[in-house]
Every structure is written in C-alpha cells, then in structure tokens.
Specification:
With 137 residues, the chain is mainly alpha-helical. The protein has a single domain (2-133), classed as Membrane associated eicosanoid/glutathione metabolism-like domain (Four Helix Bundle (Hemerythrin (Met), subunit A)), CATH 1.20.120.550. It is 72% helix and 3% strand. The protein is built from five helices and two strands; from the N terminus they run ββααααα. The protein has helices at 8-28, 46-51, 55-83, 88-110, 114-133, and strands spanning 2-3, 6-7. Helix 1 packs parallel to helix 4, helix 3 runs antiparallel to helix 4 and helix 4 runs antiparallel to helix 5 (114-133). The longest helix is centred in the middle third of the chain and has 29 residues, at 55-83. The protein starts with a strand and ends with a helix.
Amino acid sequence: MKLAGLTVAYWCVLVASLLPIVCAGLAKWGMFGTPKREGGYDNNHPRQWLAKQTDWRARANAAQANSFEALPFFIGAVVIAHQLGAGQGRLDILALVFVTLRVIYIAMYVGNLPTVRSAIWAAALLVNIAILFTGYR
C-alpha cells in the first residue's frame, strides 16, 4: 500500500527514525524551565547533563541510544526487501510490527521492566530479520 507515494514500510522507517528524538525529549522532559543550578537542562553541555541523569531519565537516554543502534538494520532490511520485490502487504505488516515493538520497548525501558524489555528487543530483532528475508525467493 502507498500513502503519498511511499509504502507503509517506508513511512515506518520515518517513524522509527523519529523514535530516538522522542526518547531524547522524554529524557529532558520538564527540565527546560528549571535553572541549571537546580539540575535543569543544560543546552550548552547536553551530553554531560544527560550522563548525570538517573532513574527514568537515564533509561530514556539509554533507550535513545538503543533506538539509534537499531535503526540502520531496520532501514537496510526495508530497502533490501523492497529491492528484492517482497510482497508489499507482508512487508508493511512486518514494518508496522517492528515499529510497534520498538515503541513498547521504549516504554518498558523507561518503566524499568528489564526482562520484558529484553524479550521485546529480541522479538523486534526477529521481526527485522523476517523483514530482511521477506523478499527472498
């Protein structure tokens, strides 16, 4: 299926590409108006500020890093599947499942549910592998 000239799978690439930014925003949430001397967000040294965070903010930042790490494989798998002539319906469904699993993964990470988070991570990896091979004939 195509929306605005792009397949659903390609739209999923866009959504997956925005997930790390969502995680970064989540890690910084509510700290923009707080003065730096009180631990507020430091835009002059954002990485150092994030490195000092604890609890759910630190986990949101870690989810950001992991979301960036998962992105190249997903993009590559979708592009390769398209090039191999994968069935579009199956590819779109798998891409939607991948993005859904990644959103759940982020929620489990921030919510401090490591066992569930790891299971969701593994499921997303398997879906990504399925995307890669869905065009194989």
